[in-house]
Structures are given as C-alpha cells and as structure tokens.
Amino acid sequence: MIQYILSCGNREVGAVIEKSLTEEVTLKEWQSYLPNYNINDELPWSKIDIGIKSNFLKTENRRLKTKKQTPWCGDSPCYNCGPCN
To answer: In principle, which of 9, 54, 58, 62 could form an S-S bond with 13, CB 3.0–4.6 Å?
Structure first.
C-alpha cells in the first residue's frame, strides 16, 4: 500500500504518512489522499515511455473489470502491447 501511496499521491500525502507513525490510519483515510483517475486522464507517469501502448492498457483495464486474465504472450499470440516492437 505504501508504494502505491508514494507513487500516486501528491505533496499532501506526507501528512498522512507522518500521522500513520503515531496513530492508526484507516484505508479510507489513505485513499482520500489519492487522486481519482479517469481511464482517459493523462497520468503523472505517462511521460515515462516504457513502450507499452495506452490502448493496450485500456483494453487490459476493461478485462480486469470483467475478471478476465490475459495469457502470457509466450504461451499465446502477440497482443501487440508494444515493448517487443
């Protein structure tokens, strides 16, 4: 959880991290410091190009919501996600 908070949170997340050192912090309180991203929003890490196409990630997001797992590409045909191209 802390890795997610650090990677997605903004400057205000420091306050909840500091509070968590001396008090119990609920999951709801942790989540209140996180942005509510939309599928079409530009994410803070979007500028880091690791080769994965955004359309592939959107497809994976839809599959996640329907609890469908994408098989490993070594066992299946290429999904054209980007890094191998």
So the answer is: 9
